[in-house]
Structures are given as C-alpha cells and as structure tokens.
Amino acid sequence: MEHMWTREIFWNVGADKKIIVYCLALIALGVFSYGIYRRYFLWRKVSLNKGRISFDVLGKRVRSLIIDGLFQRRLLREYYPGLMHAFILWGFIILLLGTITIAVQEDLTIPVMGISFLKGQFYLFYKFILNIAGLLALAGILMALVRRYVLRPDRLSRSAEQGVILMWILMILVTGFIVEGLRIYSLKNSWEVWSIGGWIVSQVLTRLSAHNGSALAAHEVVWWVHLIIALGFLAYIPFSRLIHLITSSANIFINAPTSQAVLSPILNFDTSDSFGVSTVKDFTPRQIFDFDACTQCGRCQDNCPAYISEKPLSPKKVIEELKARWLEAGKLMKGGKTVEGNGSLLEEDVIWACTLCMACAESCPVYISSFEKIMELRRNLVLMKSTFFPEIATFFRDVETFGDTFGRGRAYREDWAIGIDVKRISDGEHTDILFWVGCQGTFHDRNNRVAGSLAELFRAAGADFGILGKEEYCCGDPMRRVGNEYLFQKAARRNIELLGRLNFKRIVTYCPHCFNTLKNEYPQFGARFEVLHYTELLRDLIRGGNLKIAKDMQKSIAYHDPCYLARANGIHGMPREILRAIPGVRLVEPGHSRRETFCCGAGGGHMWMREIPGKKINEVRLEEMMNAQPAIITTSCPYCLIMFEDGVKSLGLEGTQCLDVGEVIRDAL
Q: For the chain: N or C, fewer Cβ within 10 A?
C-alpha cells in the first residue's frame, strides 16, 4: 500500500477560512479584469485606423508563441538576462500550475468525485517540482536585482516602480518558503525534505530552537501576508508596467506571421485625405498594442546601428515616447477632449536617422518593430508635408523622370554590358533566367563591374540568361524606404505589367534590395515571380559542377551580411558556402554576422541623404570588420560595397580590398 504522504490544504488556518480566501481572490480577479478592460479601451478606441488584428496562419502563431514566448529563444541569445527571465517565467508558470492543481482537487475532484490525488509519491514529486520552480524564480529575481542595481547596463530604464516590483515578487517568493518552512518545522515530518525550500527554512528554525507555539502563530500570520501580497500583485498587473506579462506573449502571437522585410502598402491613394501617421490616432490597433508589449529591455537599442554610431535615434525611446503620447491621447479621449496633431510625434532627425535595417525587430524578444512606426512617420513627412532633404527631392525627380536613381535614363541602361555577350529579352522570346541588374549595377561605376563579373560567371556556367536592357526600370525599393509610397507603387505596377508580358522562368537579382522587393513586396500587387539572389544561383552552379574553381587563394576573407539578404530573407549560409569552395580561403567572422549583422549605413534611403549627426555607420562597421584582420572584405550588395570602399578611404585602410562575392569567384575560376 502506498504511503499517504500529503498535507491538509488549510492546515493551521482553518478550512472555514476558505470562503474568505475565495472572496479575496474574486476581488483581485475583478480588479484585474477591470484593469484589462480599461487597457482594452486604449488599445482599440484611441486608434482611428480600424484595421483588424488578424488571426490567420494559426500554426505559425502558436509555434512562435511556444518557441519565443514559452521557451524564450530570443531572450536566451544573451546568457545572463536570458536565464534571468527564463528562471522567473518558468518558475512562476510552474507555481501557477501548482496552485491550479490544488484548486482542481479541492473544488472539483473531491466534492464531485470524492477523489484526492495530491498524496503519496505523486505528492512528493509535486512538492519537489514546485520547490525547484520557486527556487529558480527566486534566483531569477536576485539576478535581476544584481543586474539592475550592481551591473547597471545603460540600456535599462530606471524608476522607483521597477525596484518596488522586484521587491514585491521577492516578498511573494520568500513568504511562500517561510510558510512552508514553519509548517514543516511544526509537523516535523522527515519526508518533507522533498520540499527543498521549505525544508531549508525549517532547518534554520531548528538551529534557532524556535518555540513550537510561536511557529504556529507565525505560520498563520505569514500565510495571510503571503496570500494578500500575492493577490494584490495580481490586481496590480494591468495598472503597471507589468502589463507586459500579458501583452508581450499576446504580441508574439499577433505579430508572428508579419515579415519585417515587407512594408504595409497604402491602398487608398484615391480616397484618403491623409497618408502615414501624424498623430498617435493614425496608428493601427496592432501597432498601438506594440507600445504596451514593450518590456523596456533595451535590446533594440543595443543592436541599432544608428544608436551605436551616436546618432539621435534610440528604438527603445521611440516606443517609450510613442507610448507616452498614446496614454496621453487616451486620457484626453476619456475626458471628451479632441486629440490634435501638434507637430511630429518624433524629432525629424530621429525619423531620418533610421536605416530600416530591421535590427530592432530582429533583436526584440516580443516582436516589436520600432522602424515600422518610424516608417509611418516618414511617409507622413514625405507625402503630406513634403518635408525632406533637398537631395531627396532630386532623387524623386530622377526616378520619376528617368526611371532610375541616378538620373541617367534608359539610353544608358546597357552601357555596363558593352563588350559582354548578353542577350536582351523581348516580347515572346524565352529565357531561363532574367538577370535584374538594378540601378546600382547599371549606373554606378564600381558596381557595374560587379554586374559584368556576374554576367561572365553565368556565361561560364552555361546558364541561359538575358537582361531587360533599356526596358529595365527602378524596382522602387529606395522610394518606398524613404517614404514615397506613391512613387514606389507606380514603379511596381509598371514593372509587374512589363514582366507579365515576358517569357522567363525566374528572376535573378544582383542587389538584395531589388531581390526583397521583387520577391516579397510585389506580391502585394498581384505579382508571382520566382526570384533568386545571385548567391543562391552561384551556390547551385558550384554544387552542380557548372562552375569550376581552379585557383588557390591563400587569404583570409571577412564576409559582411547585407541586411536585406541575411536578416530579411535568411540567406547567410550560401555566400559562405560559395567562398569556402575556393581552396585556401579562410573565413573570419566579424562581431555581428548572419541575422545579427550590422548595417552598412546606406539603407532607408541613406545612400542619397546627407549624414545625420554622429559617427558614420559604415566606418563603425568597417572598424568592427577589421578586428577580424581580414585581407579581403567581401559582401553581396552594391550598397554595402560602396559604403565599405568609402570607409576604407576615410579610415586610411587602402591596403584592404573590398570585393563582391561574385568578383572573388570570378578571380578564382
């Protein structure tokens, strides 16, 4: 017969107090529910943009919630804070499940079925697991206190509330162990060693030779204290920054299918009176929900190239400032007042400092995108206020008049291919590969050499490819990222109509920005093309034996991952595989690489903008790359290549070569 290891749930307090406990719990739940309702008003009612929060792609949402919500994948990228949060989260989840288990037994299985299951070996296992969970949570809170008040990383916000919250949680855990320890000390059951935390407390009381009567009295007092502060904590959650305990997980679920590489289109140019965001009311409910999901962890700030290069942008502060504006708007609306736009929600230098590299979204553990909000503010500046740098006006005019970002025109579209045997695709002619050269590959004196190298590689591999030649038009990416959605859509629709008439199997691009736009953003307007970046094609050609690597290259190479290739589209292994195919090459990795790469500084239209005050991003990145001591710095993006060559000159590193992956492979044939 199984030993009846168990305990009386309301031991020393009295089962007659159960009704009081449940009344207090109902009050706490009522206050909690009221707080959530008040928050719901702010989430839904402040926004005049009544876009729906979608719940399609359920499988992907649930998977992301489990991986990044429950198992904390993104948080655990950083060892100390990751374990700290994981200990607290997992500890409290298990403790909550333990409390629910007691409620199921006391209010369901015993009164309805006469079954008590918290006994015997299962009870010992149950207590052991709950004590381990409590100790993990306690360790997590102590780590948090050390980190916030001893280590003090710059990215953490500091307020009295944060200290109060940590001490509040600490008191819940400590009083829980004290209650357990006092009970074990009073009953003196040897098997209670399974309740590790409580057993440790009981051993301390034994050493102190505590009076048994005093222990019983203390147990009852501490029991009620523990209950009240725990229920008070529950009621406090929706009225404090602890709201992120609910909203962060919900935000992962809501935003899981959202590709950060794809900007939302403006669909109502003909009927809308306003574009972008001028007041907080213009944000969608989903975007507003982001504000409340922010945990203020500062990871976005630590990974933002603009912030690291001392520019006036902090993604964390962007969310904090917009949240403050949102809460202010909610108070005004509750008071029956009108929320008026009063200038820009953010300083213009902050809006223009963003390179749209997506590092903030990639590093955020709860899927918040600061750059998405900045993009909406940028659209309003461009489309509604015509507020942008004069050089941007020239850039817009060049694209609208000549169809390219250099203002050269279609008459010069084929100059890069002079002396190269490349066919021009016309109506009715079939080809396997349409090589999309892009404005940079066509017109920039440095990048058109790369385009030529790629064409030579395709020919050497026997690929059937052709180009649009004079019919090629800017894909529209620079206009969209600068904020001119109107010009982008005009270019996109023109290109989709042209490509729809041609007979090809797939598009191969030189530029990652063209690649991302054609592959991921043109489908917003009905296009469905197979689009590859040239590194994908070269990898396949090398694997298939179509390209023969003949030369030995005894050099160290550092590969820089372009944001719109690695972070936006997950292509980071293929370029490295290509380079490793060259005998003698030794790949060295910079500090930031793959999906956690560091922007070159040209994204978001910065190739055409004046420098925002601060350090030059390309120089900051180049200095990091040089820490790996490479002989060659290589990349697979025309923007990155130009930025690095400029940085090499400004930093006096003329002995360092900057090459495209295509050029390295061409030289190795």
A: N
CA distances from 365 to 77, 290, 322 (A): 10, 12, 19
Sheet containing 503-509: order of strands = 423-424, 465-467, 430-436, 503-509, 531-533
Mean pLDDT for the chain?
91
Q: What's the predicted TM-score (pTM) here? A: 0.89
Helices (H) and strands (E) in the chain, counts: 27, 9
| Residue 642, amino acid | I
Write out pLDDT tens, residues 299-328.
999 999 999 999 999 999 999 999 999 988
Which one, of 612, 539, 608, 531, lies nearest residue 577 by Cα? 539
Q: Is the pLDDT of residue 662 over 70?
A: yes
Exposure string over 96-122, b if 16+ CB within 10 A, otherwise e: eebeeeeeebbeeeeeeeeeeebbeee
Residue 352: closest CA among 361, 360, 344 = 344
Q: Which residues contact 344 (CB under 8 A, 6 or more apart)?
A: 278, 351, 377, 380, 381
Give the tokens for residue 588. Answer: 């060295």
Q: What is the DSSP letter of 119?
A: -
What sign does the dihedral 50-519-574-444 (CA atoms) show?
Answer: negative
Give all domains of the chain, ordered by start, each with its CATH number. 15-45+58-252 (1.20.950), 258-383 (1.10.1060), 393-668 (no CATH)
What are the structure tokens assigned to 208, written together?
Answer: 């102190």
* Token output for 30: 């009522």
**Cβ(669)–Cβ(550) under 8 Å?**
yes
Dihedral over alpha carbons 653, 655, 660, 664 (to 10 degrees): -160
The answer to whether the beta carbons of residues 567 and 357 sit under 8 Å apart is: yes
Alpha-carbon span 627 to 493, nearest angstrom: 45
Q: What are phi and psi of 646, to 5 degrees?
A: -65, -40
